Amino acid sequence: MAPRPRSLLLASGQRLFPAGWGGGELTAHDFLTGLAREGWRVRAIGACSPSDQRVLAAKLSSFFEERPGPVADGPDVLYDVGYPVRIAPEAEFERRVRAAIAEDPPDVVFVQALGWPAAAAAAREAGRPVVLYVLADEVLRIPIPERGPDLVLFDSDAHRRSLEGKFPFGGEVFYPPVDLSRVRTEAPGPSGALTLANPMPVKGLDVFLELAVAFPDRRFLAVEGWLLPPYVAKRLARHANVEVWPWQHDMRRVYRETAIALVPSAFEPFGRLPIEAGCCGVPSITSGVGGLPESAGAARHVPLESGIEPWIRAVEEWSAPPAWTDASASARAWAERFDLPVAIERFRTLVAPLIGSP
């Protein structure tokens, strides 16, 4: 008799892929995709605030343009991206989680983002083990319950250490799974663009624009992540060698144009982009903050406080074909350690004490 498939319910108090395209949403999507490939039954419940309804509708409309799209279930939105997703109004999130657990009790409830205490309480009342994934400092922005989850996972060791003394529950490091097959392509070589994803001040906009001035004959590419504020769009438009691309469903188009990924972030608990870029042979230059030394171990790390000159020298060095080729190979090798099969095996090991063997 074949073993019963394992099941997991992901409950996140935010919009989920493809209604959200940030690191948390992509991590959840790749994680669920990886589990589904291993035979797990997975589903997800997210939430949307009233102020985000227009963004939710626009993102879903864009993504599902040429495929079966979402359907309404009262105030909820249902769709399928390789697993079923329900996006509920914020005020209904906890009720939807309770209903989903009662209807089809999962082996484990995986919670993240702002709604995690309510989802964890619902799971615990139903006798289901709870795993909390800490991807950002949002866990500090809400009341913290006295009783913690059964297992806490942190996206990087740097992030785990930064929360010591602030967040009362310790745990293990579980690097965000990255589906390399979703982004894998070929980089254009050292003459391609210098690219910044999500060109916002906290993501290193100033460094990006200073480099555009320092290299007027190089092509620079800014790819929208969060909605681009008008003042940022105006700053980018002042530079003739800077192209601005809208939010991309398929980042392979970006990596096919990119010689070097720029990650001059002021804050980065982990940092997925160097992994995605790296699997395409695109090396990264980063600020080295937070989890970037872990996610981009093969990258060049230049502290922001060192000024722009070290960034200029790093770009100059990797503009030479031999140096770029070496950096490209190192980036590819480093990225492989984060691929889905590796991550899913790590998760199975971590969760085994809670759910046992199939």
SSE blueprint and pairings:
Layout: E1 7-12, H1 23-37, E2 41-48, H2 53-63, E3 71-73, E4 76-80, E5 84-89, H3 93-103, E6 108-112, H4 116-125, E7 130-134, E8 151-154, H5 157-162, E9 172-173, H6 180-183, E10 193-197, H7 205-214, E11 220-223, H8 230-237, E12 242-245, H9 252-255, E13 258-263, H10 273-279, E14 284-286, H11 292-295, E15 300-301, H12 309-318, H13 321-335, H14 340-355
Parallel strand pairs: 1-2, 1-6, 2-5, 6-7, 7-8, 8-9, 10-11, 10-13, 11-12, 13-14, 14-15
Antiparallel strand pairs: 3-4, 4-5
Helix pairs in contact: 1-14, 3-4, 10-13
Task: Please characterize this protein's 3D structure.
- By secondary structure, the chain is α/β, with parallel strands linked by helices.
- Helix content is 37%, strand content 19%.
- Strands 3-4-5-2-1-6-7-8-9 form a nine-stranded mixed β-sheet, sandwiched between helices. A six-stranded parallel β-sheet has the order 12-11-10-13-14-15, with helices on both faces.
- β11, α8 (230-237) and β12 (242-245) form a beta-alpha-beta unit.
- α3 (93-103) packs parallel to α4.
- The mean pLDDT is 92.
